[in-house]
Amino acid sequence: MRIMLPLVLLVAAEAKFERVLIPAGSFVKGSNRGADDERPMAKRSLPAYRIDRTEVTRAMYARCVAARRCPQPAIDLAQDPELPVTNVNWHEAHAFCAFAGGRLPQ
Questions:
Q1: pTM score of the predicted model
Q2: Radius of gyration of the chain (CA)
Q3: DSSP secondary structure string, the chain?
Q4: Considering its fold, how many domains does the chain have in total?
Q5: Residues 72, 83: one domain?
Q6: In the predicted model, what is the mean pLDDT of the chain?
Q7: Which residues are CB-neighbours of 74 under 8 A, at least 6 positions away?
Q8: pLDDT over 50 at 6, yes or no
Q9: CA angle 8, 64, 92 (to 5 degrees)
Q10: Are 59 and 77 in contact (CB under 8 A)?
Q11: Is the confidence at residue 94, as pLDDT, over 90?
């Protein structure tokens, strides 16, 4: 597998970890007519939180790989660096979140 790392790093240097504020609020979770694991319908409330504005791109993930904080995934990060990164497991996603100053949802 050939990786054009300089191209990825050039694009990755411009990638931002931009987050948007989601205000506190309530929502209805579940269904009274759905599958058993969707029942019962219940109102839930969440505190305000921040979430990334976009998916993690291959370029963003390449920054983590270059910093040796994330393992190289099974895809070529240099190919289409603006696309979302795929084929990462929970541990790799967790490592990226720590690198980017965030965390996975609980």
A1: 0.69
A2: 18
A3: ----HHHHHHHHHH----EEEEPPEEEEES-SSS-GGGPSPEEEEE--EEEESSPPBHHHHHHHHHTTSS---SS-TTSSTTSBP-S--HHHHHHHHHHTT-----
A4: 2
A5: yes
A6: 85
A7: 87
A8: no
A9: 120
A10: yes
A11: yes
One domain for residues 88 and 58: yes
Q: Is residue 63 located within the same domain as residue 106?
A: yes
Q: Which amino acid is at 7?
A: L
| Four-CA torsion 84, 88, 90, 93, nearest 10 degrees | -50
Structural domain boundaries, residue 36: 20-53
Which pair of tokens denotes residue 78?
């240099």
Half-sphere exposure of 67 (CA within 13 A, CB side): 15
Q: What is the pLDDT of residues 63-77, one digit of tens each?
A: 999 999 999 998 999
- 85 and 36 housed in the same domain: no
- The whole-angstrom separation of Cα 16 and Cα 53 is 10
